[in-house]
Specification:
- With 97 residues, the chain is mostly helical.
- Helix content is 45%, strand content 10%.
- It has a two-stranded antiparallel ribbon with strand order 1-2. The chain has a two-stranded antiparallel ribbon with strand order 3-4.
- α1 packs antiparallel against α2.
- The radius of gyration is 19 Å and the shape is elongated.
């Protein structure tokens, strides 16, 4: 994980400028999917004229929100354990009870 940020004169980091990048293609892919889904959600919220009724708009927003939650969960997949100092992601499979 790489960090990049601008600093204030006192040496502290300017929170709005913090950028994080990853050198893991799987994680980068999942983040890209999440960003695209967020963009689609924002476009949908701003383009309510696309649907014939408020109910259809609301159903589309709810469906997209569920998809967005699924993408978010795939990024936060708790079956993957990342250890400091390991080049790739280590995966530990826990038995299902």
């Amino acid at each position: 994980m790489d960090f990049e940020a601008e600093r204030y004169e006192d040496g502290s980091f300017h929170p709005a400028t913090i950028k994080i990048s990853f050198q893991n293609s799987l994680l980068n892919h999942r983040l890209g999917v999440y960003i695209k889904a967020r963009e689609l959600q924002e476009n949908l919220l701003n383009d309510t004229e696309r649907f014939s009724s408020e109910g259809r708009t609301q159903r589309a927003i709810e469906a997209l929100s569920k998809d967005l939650d699924a993408v978010k969960q795939s990024i936060l997949d708790d079956s993957k354990i990342v250890k400091k100092g390991v080049r790739d992601i280590s995966v530990k499979i826990y038995p299902e009870d």
